[in-house]
Amino acid sequence: MSAEVNVDLDARKGAGHGDRLVEAADALLASCDLAQRELSILLTDDDGIRALNLRWRDVDQPTDVLSFAFDEVDDQIPGLPLGDIAINIDQADAQRSEHGLTLDEELIFLLVHGFCHLRGYDHLTEVEATEMRAEEERLLREVRPTLSRPETFF
Question: Helix (H, G, I), strand (E, B), or coil: what is residue 104?
Fold first, then answer.
């Protein structure tokens, strides 16, 4: 099953990044034996993610990525959604230089971060953050060879 990518029409800067996100999402699902599940990705902007953050978390500010897990379903039932990930392209563009990444790389990193949240990882404590960072690094190593231009990723 392939990941479903929905691009928010208000985030016109996101045009052209969907293919790389689909590639990465497919690799993430496969690397965790979740290829039969569906993953929805929304590429949005500061305004779009701020509205989501306010509605679902009661936080009136933009963030870089939000995850909404469908965690009450059996992992083995094909076609059921794993969850939704909303990625803020404005934040990704602003923070990519801090990380020394291209915009595509930052978007994929945020996808991996959101994917970890869907699978129950968090970073509220130092122990949780360490575990989540290790899983992010593992997944980034898994994703890299599957991308059409892996040499440009980390």
Answer: helix
At residue 87, the 3 state secondary structure works out as strand
Closest CA to 121 of 110, 133, 111: 133
In terms of DSSP bridges, do strands 81-88 and 65-69 run parallel, antiparallel, or are they unpaired?
antiparallel
Q: What pLDDT shows up at residue 1? A: 47
- Chosen CATH of 4-148 out of 3.40.390.30, 3.40.50.2300, 3.40.50.2000, 3.90.1170.50: 3.40.390.30
pTM exceeding 0.90: no
Give residue 9's pLDDT: 46
- Contact between 83 and 97 under an 8 Å Cβ cutoff? The reply is no
CA–CA separation, 64 vs 49, rounded Å?
8
- pLDDT under 70: residue ranges of the chain: 1-15, 71-79, 146-154
Side-chain half-sphere exposure of 16, counting CA atoms within 13 A: 4
DSSP for 27-66 reads: HHHHHTT-TTSEEEEEEE-HHHHHHHHHHHH---S--SEE
